[in-house]
């Protein structure tokens, strides 16, 4: 009886959590402009209208540029931070890692307002670059968590063996360490890309006159006739997010399995 109650609770919880997402594709193919049952018919015109919208394409291009740049920057910085935290001991290590992970617990609206005040006080003009700075900041904790796991699972004897064979620290890192943690790097980049692509609050404060995809969607919610197109866009975004997260999880598991095999199998 307990097991049945727990399964029912889990099912109701998942239904409550994902039912709105499941409704997106249903209304995206509805020919009516009113989001309500019963459906009036099936159509793909909202997807055609979505691809023909010049402002939307500009917002999508901005979001892809921001997401790609933020993912690369956050992952590169995370490699250095994770390498330092797992390989070396130094004063203030715990405090430095705590500051890096702080955006995980800070409300994004506080981070956005703080960055806005600092950037305006420094005379920096709001643009795509300022959004990239903000998104790199909030993506860093996720990338560091993934890269720390990847570096922690490595066998130190592999690096020591490379030194014994005459490699320098840089060449050992480039030829031995990086290939082993490459699945973690790809996973961190994909995770950061997805987070940046979907982020709204910081983009709302720091984008200036440049639209991003989330801010464009928010601006269109005031117009009832645009809602079906937004449903179509939401369907595409959900599918993209699921695909990217699935790929990131695949590379994360592949990296864990790979390092585990290396640890147990030695140099061979």
TrEMBL record:
Residue intervals passing through the bilayer: 12-39, 59-82, 94-122, 128-154, 175-207, 227-248
Topology of the protein relative to the lipid bilayer: Multi-pass membrane protein
Compartment(s) of residence: Cell membrane
Signal peptide start and end residues: none
GO process annotations (BP): transmembrane transport
Keywords on record: Cell membrane, Membrane, Transmembrane, Transmembrane helix, Transport
One Pfam family in the UniProt entry: BPD_transp_1
Gene Ontology cellular-component annotations: plasma membrane
Record's keyword annotation contains Secreted: no
Domain ABC transmembrane type-1: 60-248
Coiled coil: none
Database matches in InterPro entries: Bact_Polyamine_Transport (IPR051789), MetI-like (IPR000515), MetI-like_sf (IPR035906)
Domain of life, per lineage: Bacteria
The keyword Isomerase is annotated on this UniProt entry: no
Main location: membrane
Family recorded in the similarity comment: Belongs to the binding-protein-dependent transport system permease family. CysTW subfamily.
Protein name per the record: Spermidine/putrescine transport system permease protein
